[in-house]
Amino acid sequence: MKTSEEIDKISAAIVAAQAEIGHALKDAKNPHFKSEYATLESVIDTVKPALTKNKLGVIQAPVMIEGNVTALVTRFIHESGQFYEICSPLISIKNTMQDLGSAITYQRRYSLASFLGVAQSDDDGNAASAPAQQKQNFSPAPASEAHAPANHAPAGPGRLSDAQIKRLHAIMKAANSKGGSWTPVVLNKVLSEGYKVQDPYLLHRKEYDELCTSIEGGATAQQILNVKSGKNPGPADAEPIPF
Question: CB atoms < 10 A from the CB of 194, how many?
């Protein structure tokens, strides 16, 4: 790893960013291993808001190093000019440009995730291993629910299914492609403050439909919170909620 001569400012910024970064959503399936994983897009969506907020940027590019070895250089930069840089070799088995492209994407994903401490989570989120800022949005289940399945909220009237939660995340992703800013941290904020629940599975169907419709309609997190609190969401509330 390479660094600038001084790293005090970038170190403080990275610590602050990591406190805000949640886990990357598993949004793709590997047909060979029949497993799910977080794509590069999911990892970027997860880390970019916190990096931007803390004046951090990332540059990733393939380079040739000693011995004609192709590698990926990932440099995390701070507005002060300080940086951290890591270099990871690229393994291209078929030795074709397409295979090299896949290796670059793969290494970009792992370099970002490993440096920033990003883990992959299922759609319901993993409260037990969430960062400090996200943990405050979760609370222990009541004693009567202590033996519920680990991967989702307890079943009951109005509780949601895995398919419904996946649809919610798909709607968020579609909104982001149109300029939205629906990250896991933003969703947790809306759930805890607007709907008074700590887990999306605990939404009742009417609340779930309302939230999906609002996001599909282009509503920001701040506008939804304003509506839930009874405040009129005028034009001045169109700015994204500052988390």
Answer: 19
* Side-chain-side CA neighbours of residue 243 (13 Å): 27
Domain ranges of the chain: 2-121, 152-237
Digit-by-digit pLDDT tens for the chain (243 residues) are 999 999 999 999 999 999 999 888 887 777 666 678 889 998 999 999 999 999 999 999 999 988 788 999 999 999 999 999 999 999 877 788 888 899 999 999 999 999 999 987 654 333 333 444 443 443 333 433 333 333 444 434 446 777 888 888 889 988 888 888 888 888 888 988 889 888 888 888 888 889 999 999 999 989 998 888 876 554 444 444 443
Distance of alpha carbon 200 from the chain centroid: 15
Structure tokens at 197: 């629940």
Is 0.90 surpassed by the pTM of this model? no
Alpha carbon distance 85, 164 (integer Å): 40
Angle between helix 184-194 and helix 221-229 axes, rounded to 10 deg: 0
Separation of alpha carbons 201 and 208, rounded Å = 9
Structure tokens of 157?
């009237």
- Least Cα distance to 71 among 92, 49, 97, 89 occurs for 89
Q: Could you give the angle at which helices 97-116 and 8-20 cross, rounded to 10 degrees?
A: 90
